[in-house]
Amino acid sequence: MTEDTIVYKYSFTLEEGETKEIQLCLNKSTLDVICPPVPQEKLPLWTFLEHKQCPNCPLDPNLHPHCPIAVNILTLAESFSDFVSYERAKVYVETDSRTYVKETDLQTVLSSILGIYMVTSGCPIMDKLRPMVRFHLPFASYDETQYRAISMYLTAQYLRYKKGKTPDWDLTGFISMYEEIGEVNRAFAGRLRQISPCDANTNALVILDSFASLITFEADINKNIPSELESIFKLFLDAP
User: Could you tell me the CA-to-CA distances from 33 to 28, 55, 124, 173, 238 in Å, in that order?
Assistant: First the structure.
């Protein structure tokens, strides 16, 4: 790959010895996922935009006949449609900077991969999380995801401020953004159920949705930065 490409390579071995390798390539400038084109006549029914279209989807089926996420995850989803979520796997994730290793269940592996596809495929709702994928952290815990999400959003507000635009320091837009993302996650799970007799694919999305729901709930309850994070920044808060 060229220096203009970001690569995340997932290699894993399942309990019974079967090996899988999934390489995700992103355009470094746009963070668009780079996938081999699939002829439209070969795209199945579940990839059509109007087939279980997300209630909050702003795309026009006349201009976008297919769901951009569904098209890009077609091969992945069909490859794991017959796998169960609890199957164990040893996973290596190679990036330009380091390699991550984890023994976990298949749904966690697929959740990490789906998380990249969901925000880099051209969905207008999910696109707002693209800055996070530039610094992707495989198998992030909830606390890590919460911190990264809030940091991303506040960085965006600072950049807006520097451009003379009105920033949202109270996270009002952050809460509504994650509510929209949760709606997409839940609706998209309905698509995957159409092709997945087993639950690995759908449960991978359930994990993503549970993180989104928790982040929204905690941010909404606190109406600002979650109180648990304040102790981490005590030095800054106590400074004159």
Answer: 9, 24, 14, 26, 43
